[in-house]
Amino acid sequence: MTSQTAVTTAPDFVPDSVRGAARDTAIDTAPDPAPVRTRPLRLAVVIGSNREGRFGPVVADWLLAQVDAHPDLVADVIDVAGADLPTALSGSPSAEVAAELAKVTPKLSAADAFVVLTPEYNHSYPAALKNLIDWHFTEWQAKPIGFVSYGGVSGGLRAVEHLRQIFAELHAMTVRDCVSFQHAGAHFDKEGNHRDPTAPTQAAKAMLDQLTWWGRALREAKTHHPYGA
Questions:
Q1: CB-based contacts of 96: which residues, under 8 Å, 6+ apart?
Q2: Which residues have a Cβ under 8 Å from the Cβ of 24 and sit 6 or more positions away?
Q3: Res 31: pLDDT
Q4: 42 membership: H or E segment, kind and range
Q5: What residues have CB less than 8 Å from 211, skipping those under 6 apart?
Q6: Cβ neighbours for 137, distance < 8 A, ≥ 6 positions apart
Q7: Cα-Cα-Cα-Cα dihedral of 48, 203, 177, 8, to 10°?
């Protein structure tokens, strides 16, 4: 189910909880000694916009509340605004670039599943999000990905359709259901609360349930048969 909502422009409110790349409940990237079947899934929420005045952190805070209510998921945030990655890719990055990659790569690698949060720019996704994707490869492989999008009349869904093609090339599994906010700024108050949360909350639950199923199935499968082996 895709939830679409309606109306005006986005406020400048940016929650403190998602400024930069860190979050108090960040995933511990060290190996977890608990059995695979009983461990919560490590879910990385990727904020895909670094534009000045962006609305993404408002939507991310709402999404993180939905994840917190899901007993099988532990969330972390990866914010493209928190790492200054150059657009020139390199197999031997400089020390400066390696330091920027160190802010995001361990979190991507540790994640069992992802939610990519994207606006729509000119019928597609932001360049900073594509850059983060392209600097990595195995970190995405054989993992499920869900989408939360926002934008104008399309609610960001055209960006999502483009991203599905990219993640297929990276051997990732995108789940069917997503959450889409049409004219998202009208639906959140100045404190970042959704004014009518019933439909988007249901859509988020459907997406997170699908991510959980695929995340558990793929994680367990990889313990017996490493992907590509």
A1: none
A2: 17
A3: 57
A4: strand 41-47
A5: 41, 43, 73, 113, 115, 144, 145, 146, 175
A6: 170
A7: -50
DSSP state of 196: S
For residue 8 the two structure tokens come to 């005006």
Q: At what angle do helices 157-169 and 127-134 cross, to 10 degrees?
A: 10
Structure token pair of residue 225:
């048969």
Tell me the C-alpha distance between 90 and 94, whole Å. Answer: 9
SS3 43: strand
pTM reported for the whole predicted model: 0.84
Q: Are the CB atoms for 10 and 55 separated by under 8 Å?
A: yes
| Structure tokens, 22 | 């860190």
CB-count burial class (<10 Å; 0-12, 13-18, 19+) for 54: buried
**What's the pLDDT tens digit per position in 52-111?**
999 999 999 999 999 999 999 999 999 999 999 999 999 999 999 999 999 999 999 999
> Which pair of structure tokens corresponds to residue 81?
């605004």
**Angstrom distance (rounded) from CA 133 to CA 108:** 10
Q: What are the structure tokens assigned to 120, written together?
A: 């729509």
